Amino acid sequence: MFGYDWPRLHAALNDLPTALLLTALLFDIAALATRREGLRLVSFWTLVVGAIGGAAAVISGLQAEEHIAHGEAVHEVMETHEQFALITLGIFGVLALWRIVRERKMATAERSLVTGLTLLGVAILFVTANYGGRLVFEHAAAIPSSVLQEELHERSEGHDHQDGEEEEPEATADSVSARAPAHLDPPGTPPHSHPPGNPPHQD
Question: Does residue 152 lie within any of the structural domains?
Fold first, then answer.
């Protein structure tokens, strides 16, 4: 769909719920501190939309798992990532339903409890994201083996940062001697000899 397979779609859907749920927490805290109605409404809607986005990310992640070739090490990290993702979705799903039903009826104590659970959910969300990052950056999950092998081959060949400019060879004693001008003695100077290796000169 639009050039996205399940792993790419999962990667694309991850950022939205993370940003929204963190934003919901920040506005929750601000609303408690200032008691401003506008901040409370922002926290409510960002949490609800973030929970919906989280569901989309989890569903795409479950599908991506079936389309990624992996070994035992990747499988263990993937299972842990999945478990934390389901816990995160569960927390924010409950919070979204709770706030839809009770948003206008909450007293300060109940709202503080909701904010505390939101903080817990965001903490688990970051753990979930950490395991997702390990899958990509430590295990190269979702990268086909053929693509990975080609990339490893290219890296082994290195890359020239000279932008087409030829690198000047390192100077050596022989090259310096070869570039040095011939030694000239004034006319009438008696002949003399030099140690071996000195450049020739003209009398």
Answer: no
